[in-house]
Amino acid sequence: MTRPRLWMPLAGFALLFAIVAVALFRPADRTVRSQLVGQPLPAFTLPALVPGKPGLSREDMTGQGPRLLNIFGSWCLPCIAEAPQLMRLRAAGVPIDAIAIRDTGPAVAAFLARNGDPYRRIGDDQRSAVQLALGSSGVPETFLIDAQGRIVRQYVGDIRADQVDSVIADWRAAQ
Amino acid sequence: MIAEAGLAALWIAAALALLQIALAALGLRRLGVAAVGGSVRAVAIVQGVTALLAMAALILLFQQSDMSVKLVAENSHSAKPWLYKVTGAWGNHEGSMLLWVTILGLAGGAVALAERRLAEPTLVATLGAQAGIALGFYAFLLFASNPFARLAEPPADGAGLNPLLQDPGLAFHPPTLYAGYVGLSVAFSFAVGALVTRDVGRDFASAMRPWVLGAWIFLTLGITAGSYWAYYELGWGGWWFWDPVENASLMPWLAATALLHSVTVLATRDGLRAWTVMLAVVAFSMSMLGTFLVRSGILTSVHAFAVDPRRGAFILVLLALYIGGALALFGLRIGTVRQGRIFDPVSREGGLVANNLLLSVILGVVLIGTLYPIVAAGFGVQLSVGPPFFNKAAGPIALALIVLMAIGPLLRWRRDEAGLLPERLMVPVAVSGGAFALLVVFAMPIGVLPLLGLSLAAGLAVASVLPLVRRNLRRTPLFVWGMVVAHLGIGVSLAGMACDAAFTSERLVALLPGEATRVGPFRVTLDGIAPVVDENWSALQAQLTAERDGAVLRLRPQSRTFTDPPTTTSESAIATRLDGQLYTVLGKPDGQGRWQLRLWWKPFVTLIWLGGALVALGGALALAGRLVRRRREAMA
Fold this sequence. Notes:
The structure holds 2 protein chains of 2 kinds.
Chain A: H1 3-6, H2 8-25, E1 45-46, E2 56-57, E3 67-72, H3 77-91, E4 96-101, H4 105-115, E5 122-125, H5 129-133, E6 141-145, E7 151-156, H6 164-173
Parallel strand pairs in A: 3-4, 4-5
Antiparallel strand pairs in A: 1-2, 3-6, 6-7
Chain B: H1 2-31, H2 33-63, H3 70-75, H4 82-87, H5 93-114, H6 120-144, H7 168-197, H8 202-233, H9 244-269, H10 273-296, H11 309-333, H12 348-378, H13 387-407, H14 421-442, H15 448-465, H16 478-503, E1 505-511, E2 516-519, E3 522-533, E4 537-548, E5 551-555, E6 558-562, E7 567-571, E8 573-577, E9 580-589, E10 595-603, H17 607-635
Antiparallel strand pairs in B: 1-10, 2-3, 3-4, 4-5, 4-6, 6-7, 8-9, 9-10
Helix pairs in contact in B: 1-2, 1-6, 2-5, 2-6, 5-6, 5-7, 6-7, 6-11, 7-8, 7-10, 8-9, 8-17, 9-10, 9-12, 10-11, 12-13, 13-15, 14-15, 15-16, 16-17
């Protein structure tokens, strides 16, 4: 082995040291935001889950005016709390599409029968694949999509009653 | 009084460590090792005992619930069960660091007491290096993490221990991992000692080997137990999350596994000198880096430890001193170490080198994946690296390693004929191919990695026992048995992982009492929900009935609320059958009478931990075999 090569481990360690030292003294922001806000929706096609309700793909969400994309599950309790707000948004004329996460058809149908059905389409995401592709880390989450199919905003957690008006305003602004 | 005595013991231990370094340096430079050897050994032993006294004092304080001690007040509670008062002593930052340094001191003492074979100068240098490591950690405790600090106004009662940690698993998980880390520190000290005296050879390797083996056994047990703890306590149904703290324990294990195999080449055939020294340094670096990542809080993790950047900075400085120092010493000295013996690529040594290369690549992948979020954050990009990266990047290499693991033990030392291999490997290859065909026909679709994993696991299980074929089993040395059992354990564990990935069924439901759902082969009914109370928690408990082919299981998952500190945890209920586990978690009520339930049927998942235990057992057999042989050689 040549002499300079013997010092390579030390050089590697120095690099490692520099990385962690910088990180230690400049802690990073820890909120989980989607990296996709401001970007076009990723391509996806999800099958239908509930009879009479079509599945969902990117093409269904472009060129038809701004809309909301709600990520939910029939097993998710905040989603029940969110349901009345979604019904109000629907009544105000906001179109809402949905992706059901790790769910079954009968469970979703029962959920909609109990809590109201604000959705135009529901896509079936068995393995959270599309959810993760959207940069969503939990349920419920809602994305505002503009007419060109770009993600304008992300609402993390359930939309509360006092947020409904501002969501409608956001939706109007995206026209 | 006890707290003050404990603090005094810490100061005395630190002073003894300083004395140990000074004596070792003086002996190597001026007086000659003959003059100092005995006293260095004695100081090392006393230092270990003193550290043990400090640890005992802390356990006693927790036992007595002495709330005038800050650490006890912050982490304990008088109503806590007895066992958790003891384990609570290390269920926190200061106490766990004290445990670390106690084990370190005891290990140094054990080297001083037991090592008779190594050349005296190398031993003195080794004990000096060991004292250097201990001194840094004593300073860390005394200046940045004093476990014995008193409160001016003692509170009436303590704040309690994080309920997630109130579990028998915690009693053994950290001490086991620490024993592993510390064993690697001894290997590191041996490497530094050997570099100082330029004495890298077979004696050095056989002195180091039991420590590496011991460390590796503890790391294996620690990781296996930690994985099972996360599996049943967190209630997420997974057994490995590629969480930074898990990676922090996996990286030293990977390095130690590589070291374990290369030290065998050095001890048996006197080859791989520089590489073995480098691995000893890397293995300890990885455990230091792990300690740093966990304790400094620079990575987000499910393991939320109390963190403080000042402490992180302190450990980082120690890391720089030890690892930077050792690597600089490596650069300076290794060029002057005589090259070891050369061997043929197709030989047992060749197989072990390939094993080392693959393990190093996996280690590199895990290291990069763990640190990449930090680097990205430096450039303003926020991301996390998770299973999709690690499984794709490390999975295929790990499978290549499995293939190698089947072949390696069938190779002869020094030189072998590649042409003879097909004959020796016929049975395992046939078994693998058969398993592959059966799976393709009957079990598709399963993913590529689980498919290959299961087929290779079957082949490996067969290949791993081949070294015993046509041997007189009663005269087969224990360390050969150890290798067989450990390799078999990897096969078993791999089969469990692949089954879990391929065949798990999952169900998320909200049920009314009386309603039922299906998961895997089971029909699970929610019979009802009832409250339960214990000493320091109350809970809502679901009564579940699971039926399969007429057999009925009853499960009682709980949503537990602890009072001190107020926290809610999910206590999963798991029914273990021969062919897998039914895993149930109770969620929240929906206000309309329904209860959220999360159910999994996980076929053969228990093989994962059974395999881990076999691997550790293999290590223990190998260690016993080595120690018996050394003893015999010492007698002869």
